[in-house]
Amino acid sequence: MLKRNIDIKKINKFSENCMVGNLGIEITEIGKDYIQGKMPVDKRTTQPFGLLHGGASVALSETLGSFGAELINNENDNIIVGVEINANHIKSVKEGFVYGKSKPIHIGNKTQVWQTKITNDSGKLICISRLTLAVLEKK
After folding, report:
1. Active-site residue 16, yes or no?
2. Number of domains observed in the structure of the chain
3. Which ranges of the chain have pLDDT less than 70?
């Protein structure tokens, strides 16, 4: 389903000079039906009390789901845009990395829905998120 012949180094290089790069998000693996990445828990991604900011978790989720959707869409003449995202923050994190794994729940002609589970260094669930994307024709 996902195009696995994509060079992960090129994806990460492409993302250097935008929010994805500024938050330290890296794509780490692309599988047949998933995309994985990681994000540091540091001054770029924490709130004033030193905990991982919920918005940073949402940014990781949207990054992974959007890249995954684009990898499916790769050969079509469409653009993919996010229309809705939700997140349940389960556990706090103060240091280390968080790891996201995003999988499609629905791949349609007009919409895609992706679920991302974010875990800490110990593999415990930190956040679960669902992203809905619209598939639009390029004009």
Report:
1. no
2. 1
3. 3-4, 74-76
